Amino acid sequence: MGIYQSGGRTRSIVNVANPGGAGTSAYVFTTSSLSEPTQATDGYANYGTQENLHLMIDNNSDETSKFVVWTYHSFSGIWGKLNIFDGTNGLNDVITIQVAAGINHHVIAKIAGAERVYIQCYDYPNTPSGNTTVYLGVNTI
Predict the structure, then answer these.
(1) Residues contacting residue 82 through CB under 8 Å, at least 6 positions apart
(2) Which whole-number Å values give the CA distances from 77 to 38, 48, 71, 104, in the listed order?
(3) Closest residue by Cα to residue 26 from 11, 41, 45, 9
């Protein structure tokens, strides 16, 4: 018999790389990661299927890095880039995150219904000094 999990509301942010723990990063980039997620087990589970994804990105390199967020839904069995509706142009645009050198950056994105998340670093300098660390957390409220 499995452990019951209601998927109920979570006020505090749960670290998806180490649920119940703190300080564990999900990714450390030193180069671009151009691979896209393809398997249902890629990335990290959205613990309790929460609504909000928190990205804390620590870019301690000497160059700007750029990211895109992917989400997975078992109803379709495929991954897709996270989009947001832009009311100024009436289009859905892929959420891209750009973090300048030496910056800590916090982003919150709505991922309601997503079962897994994956971060792709699609633009990272070829010879940086340092790295960029990404922490992922989820909550509902």
Answers:
(1) 68, 69, 70, 71, 94, 95, 109, 111
(2) 9, 19, 11, 33
(3) 45
Coil, helix or strand for 47?
Answer: helix
Cα dihedral 11, 14, 19, 21 sign: negative
Contact 55/117 with Cβ under 8 angstroms? no
Which tokens sit at 105?
């950056």
Per CATH, the number for 14-139 is 2.60.120
Question: What's the pLDDT tens digit per position in 19-56?
Answer: 999 999 999 988 777 789 999 999 999 998 999 999 99
The strand pairing partners of 119, in sequence order, are 69
